[in-house]
């Protein structure tokens, strides 16, 4: 892997160059508590020190809603909508969200490729950014606090700039035309990266490895936590809609007023909604709130074979954005008997 350094001042100049390459999105503060990936017009608005965005990066590739087909009922014809994708540069993506995108790739780009997702993903450039954990983060016990794939460039904070890992050919093509902005990495820079990593590791509230969590969940399916916590769950779906790896969607046919034409759309769904398990004959295979609550805990803690991680990347969003203050990390620790601060 290639390593270069960039000063903070030159980072702003580099962001200007990125803006000329495509649509640049980066974290911005959108309220007292919340950040989001926003279209950047002034590069000085980029937030380098943010905790988590309310909407995960997957939304750029798997749109919250999109038209898939137009149909004509008289001719029994479906016409696929051609995906129009612009070049997107996502700057400031944390490790957890990079693994989240790799999980999305595993699901949408397997042997049955989703062409809508694929078209957009091919035009996406991912630039990672190092971060310090807060009490909601547990990416370390998920083994993904330091990623080695899934980014074109990765910016590691230094006292006077960033140490940049170049991860792909695309990354090289972004760096190579601007030798005036980048410099060689010195021994001091490497030492500073080491100190940052040490500081980051020391800030997690829990330690260890949760690889055996799935099995404790399977062995303790009748744990009283499910009754207690599902009782206070509002079924709002915030936990899934903010999750960087949730990908359930529903499909709807919308006939036009002429009753001849129409369009088929798909839109994000949530396993926390009653309608998610509702099928023909008014049967619901997850009829109760507890069923739906239980499903999320098991789905998120299954393993994704392609990334060899769990589907939960430990970003903390589902707790941070839960209006009922249900603490996912604490509940998992309770079931598995893990120790540590919650
Ligand atoms: S965000 Fe909280 S209240 Fe809403 S569905 Fe998820 S667990 Fe329940
Ligand atoms: S389940 Fe919660 S903590 Fe895990 S990736 Fe999804 S939002 Fe993040």
What does this structure look like?
The chain is of the alpha+beta class and about 350 residues long. It has one domain. The chain contains eleven helices and 16 strands. The chain has helices at about 10-20, 95-110, 115-120, 170-175, 185-200, 215-220, 225-230, 240, 290-300, 315-320, 330-335, and strands spanning about 1-5, 25-30, 35-40, 65-70, 75-80, 90-95, 125-130, 155-160, 160-165, 180-185, 250-255, 260-270, 280, 285, 305, 310. An eight-stranded mixed β-sheet has the order 3-2-6-7-8-9-1-10. Helix 7 (about 225-230) crosses helix 9 (about 290-300). The two termini are about 35 Å apart. One iron/sulfur cluster (SF4) binds near residues 244, 314, 315, 317 and 328. One iron/sulfur cluster binds near residues 244, 300, 312, 313 and 314.
The number of helices is 11
Please tell me the overall pLDDT.
96
Specify the structural class. Answer: alpha+beta
Structural Rg: 22 Å
Which strands sit side by side, in order, in the main sheet? 3-2-6-7-8-9-1-10
Secondary-structure map:
Elements: E1 2-7, H1 8-21, E2 23-29, E3 35-39, E4 65-72, E5 77-80, E6 88-93, H2 95-108, H3 115-122, E7 124-129, E8 153-158, E9 161-166, H4 169-175, E10 182-183, H5 187-202, H6 213-219, H7 225-232, H8 238-241, E11 249-255, E12 261-268, E13 278-279, E14 283-284, H9 289-300, E15 303-304, E16 309-310, H10 317-320, H11 328-336
Helix pairs in contact: 7-9
Bound molecules: iron/sulfur cluster (2 copies).
Summarize the entry for a quick read.
The model has no long low-confidence stretch (mean pLDDT 96). Helices cover 30% and strands 23% of the residues.
């Amino acid at each position: 892997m290639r390593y270069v350094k960039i000063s903070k001042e030159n980072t702003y100049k580099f962001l200007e160059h990125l803006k000329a390459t495509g649509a640049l999105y980066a974290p911005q503060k959108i309220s007292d508590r919340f950040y989001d990936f926003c279209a950047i017009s002034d590069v000085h608005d980029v937030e380098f020190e943010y905790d988590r965005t309310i909407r995960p990066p997957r939304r750029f590739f798997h749109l919250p809603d999109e038209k898939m087909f137009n149909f004509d009922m008289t001719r029994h014809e479906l016409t696929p909508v051609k995906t129009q994708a612009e070049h997107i540069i996502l700057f400031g993506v944390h490790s957890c969200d990079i693994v989240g995108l790799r999980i999305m790739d595993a699901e949408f780009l397997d042997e049955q490729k989703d062409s809508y997702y694929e078209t957009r993903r091919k035009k996406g450039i991912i630039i990672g950014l190092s971060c310090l954990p807060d009490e909601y983060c547990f990416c370390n016990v998920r083994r993904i606090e330091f990623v080695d794939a899934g980014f074109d460039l990765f910016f590691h904070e230094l006292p006077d700039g960033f140490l940049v890992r170049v991860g792909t050919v695309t990354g090289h093509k972004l760096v190579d035309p601007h030798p005036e902005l980048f410099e060689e990495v010195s021994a001091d820079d490497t030492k500073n990266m080491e100190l940052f990593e040490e500081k980051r590791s020391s800030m997690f509230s829990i330690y260890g490895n949760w690889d055996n969590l799935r099995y404790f969940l399977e062995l303790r399916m009748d744990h009283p936590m499910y009754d207690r916590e599902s009782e206070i769950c509002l079924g709002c779906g915030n936990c899934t809609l903010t999750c960087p790896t949730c990908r359930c969607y529903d499909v709807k046919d919308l006939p036009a007023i002429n009753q001849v034409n129409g369009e088929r759309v798909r839109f994000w769904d949530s396993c926390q909604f009653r309608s998610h398990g509702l099928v023909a004959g008014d049967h619901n295979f997850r009829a109760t709130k507890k069923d739906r609550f239980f499903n999320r805990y098991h789905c998120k803690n299954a393993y994704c074979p392609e990334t060899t991680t769990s589907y939960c990347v430990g970003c903390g969003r589902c707790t941070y954005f839960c209006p009922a203050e249900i603490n996912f990390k604490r509940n998992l620790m309770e079931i598995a008997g893990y120790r540590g601060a919650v």
